[in-house]
Design brief:
alpha+beta; five-stranded mixed sheet; 2,3-Dihydroxybiphenyl 1,2-Dioxygenase, domain 1
């Protein structure tokens, strides 16, 4: 049986600032909260009706500064329109971000108020061998962005249609 991703729990210092950012800026809703062992509390957040929580906040982070054990949390959007809406929200909130295309995704990277890395992305039509990363212009139209991405990554090894890559991976996974 294959595992599927469910959630991440991060240890936070400033509950209110983190809740404000994740609910107001990223659009999560608090689904539950309560005490756990060692007199600590946990808060659960989700955007998906079938996921009780996608992110959890374990209260009680002692030090400030960047997290030192997780590079970033990554959230997938269904399409470019949703990614553009998220970018607009980040811009409206004054959140600095870095647009990066990996050839197989159009991503934006930024930090939450406690300096945890976050990526929001949508898939491109292509598979590209990783690691890859090129800055993309968020002002390009969808058609211009597709053209730029194909031109930028088409000479990379294993460049192919995403459907072909997925079919190949299904066959490989079926052998295990």
């Amino acid at each position: 049986m294959a595992l599927s991703w469910s959630h991440t729990v991060i240890i936070v210092k400033d509950e209110q600032t983190m809740l404000d950012f994740y609910t107001r800026v990223l659009g999560f809703q608090v689904t539950d909260r309560g005490p756990i062992a060692d007199d600590r509390s946990i808060i659960f957040l989700s955007q998906q009706p079938d996921e009780h929580h996608q992110v959890g906040f374990l209260l009680g982070r002692a030090e400030a500064g960047p997290s030192n054990s997780v590079a970033h949390l990554a959230f997938r959007t269904d399409d470019m329109a949703e990614l553009r809406a998220r970018i607009a929200k980040l811009e409206a909130e004054g959140v600095a971000y870095r647009p990066t295309s990996h050839g197989n995704t159009w991503s934006v990277y930024f930090q939450d108020p406690e300096m945890n890395g976050i990526e929001i992305f949508c898939a491109t039509p292509w598979h590209v061998r990783q690691p890859q990363g090129e800055v993309w212009n968020t002002r390009l139209s969808d058609a211009e962005l597709r053209d730029w991405t194909e031109a930028t990554f088409k000479s990379e090894p294993e460049f192919s249609r995403q459907e072909d890559y997925i079919a190949r991976r299904r066959k490989e996974l079926a052998k295990t």
